[in-house]
Amino acid sequence: MAIYRSPYEAYPFLCDADDDLRCDFELLTDELASGAGLLRSQITQPPLADELLWVCELIYHMNPTLRTTFTVTEEEIARLAAAVDRLQAASSVHGFVLPCGCQCACTAHLLRVKAKCLVRLLYRYLHRGGGVPDGLLDLANLLSGYFFLLALKLNALNGVEERVYRSRNYQ
Q1: pTM above 0.85, yes or no
Q2: Which candidate, 32, 46, 59, 73, has a CA 20 to 30 Å from the CA of 40?
Q3: CA dist 89 to 2, 40, 99, 100, Å?
C-alpha cells in the first residue's frame, strides 16, 4: 500500500510502521522534555529551575537512542539518582498521594506519569525484540521518581499539604 507523504511532514519518522515503536519513543521523550520546559517556567527557585533545564537536556539526549546509540553517561545517571536521593531525604511523605496541589506540582505529576509511559514503551520494544540499554531503562525509571519527588518538594515549597491516598485494593 502506498502511503502519501506530505511535503510538510513535521517529523520524518511519523510514517513508520505501527509496530515500529522508535518514533513513539521519540515523540514521548519530546513530550516529556517539553513538559519539563513548561514546569521550569512555573518554578521561581533558581536551583530547581537550573536542574530542570539540565533534566530537559538529558531527556533530549535519550531521544535518538533507539535509532542510534545511548549517549547519556553513567555520571549523568548517577547525578539524576543523587537528585532523587536528595529529594527523597527532604520528603516526609511515604506512600501514595493524590496527584494534586499547586500548579507546578500537578505538572510534575503529569511528567511522572509520562516517564512511566516511557518505561512501558521501552518494555514493549524489548518484548518485540528491540535492544534497550540498561542505562536507558534506569534513566527512564529515575525520571519518574524524580518528577514524583519534585512534585512533593514543590507542594512543600508552596505550603500545600499532601493528600495521602489509601487504596481500597492494595494494602
Answers
A1: yes
A2: 73
A3: 56, 22, 20, 21
Distance (Å, whole) CA 170 – CA 93: 18
Do 27 and 58 form a contact (C-beta atoms < 8 A)?
no
The CA-CA-CA angle for residues 22, 23, 24, to 5°, reads 90
Residue 162 belongs to some domain of the structure? no
In which domain, by residue range, is 109 found? 35-157
Q: Is residue 152 part of a domain?
A: yes
pLDDT tens per residue, range 89-100: 999 888 889 999
The structural domain count of the chain equals 1
Is 23 inside a domain boundary? no
Q: CA 22 to CA 14: how far, in whole Å?
A: 10
